[in-house]
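Reopening this one. Same input as before:
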Amino acid sequence: MKFPKPYTLKEIASLINTDYVGSDDFPVLGMNEIHVVEPGDIVFVDHPKYYDKALQSAATIVLINKEVECPEGKALLISDDPFRDFNKLTTYFKPFRSSSVSIAADAKIGEGTVIQPNCFIGNNVTIGKNCVIHSNVSIYDDAIIGDNVIIHAGTILGASAFYYKNRPEGFDQLKSGGRVVIENNVDIGAACTIDKGVTGDTTIREGSKIDNQVQIGHDTVIGKKCLIASQVGIAGCTVIEDEVTIWGQVGITSGVTIGKKAVISAKAGVSKSLEGGKHYFGIPADDFRSKYKEIASIKKVPELIEQVKNLSK
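Same output, byte for byte:
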């Protein structure tokens, strides 16, 4: 998330009432999660395990819960609770805006686009030309939808990320200030849910087709011309490259990459990144050749047990 204008380190520290290490006028341009940070961004870290990763990331401002040596060319914001203060910044720069109308006054809707009854189109939404938005679709604030997109009934674009910190008093949600971006010629089935990014974009690239009842988590990027069948669940921060096919009821964990033209068969469970150009199935998912060898070996177990019994007589 980029701020509407550059801020100084002193101004940001004042907003969240923290100490800082660095010059008063150190430039702050935005805030992001660690996988998408750029120079000028704030990244937060609240666990020693990830200190080095945050300090060595592309982010030039680190919101951290311990005063550590500041890397050259960077600045620190010292907080007793970086998670809380990151949320404060999200609330300040991307506050919730209520709406009393079905289609926000500042929504931009392209020529030839049809919006069926009972839809909600939020603040600052852009919808391109010749789209069809079927009934009971909800498109939350700041979403961007390209041309020739079809979205079927009951789909929701832009719900908050499923991202929580476990505190003694209960779970504390990391607030979402990102967007959903749908490129041209995408079809989205009925009753799908696509969460917005925490600070960046959840993106579906041109020409991809998504079946009914698919869940796509925050900050996930789905490439061009992908096919995703019904009841697939994709966790946050996943990268699915171009022309990937995912069949029904596949579950994909967060932070993995599925390579170009991979095919994942129904009910597979993906727990690690998968190379492109191969077919996968099973739990955990593996390529067909490896999985068939594994199944063949398992089938030999009764025979091996019988051989052991005969040897012991």
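So the earlier flakiness isn't reproducible anymore. For the record, The chain has two domains: 2-93, 108-291.
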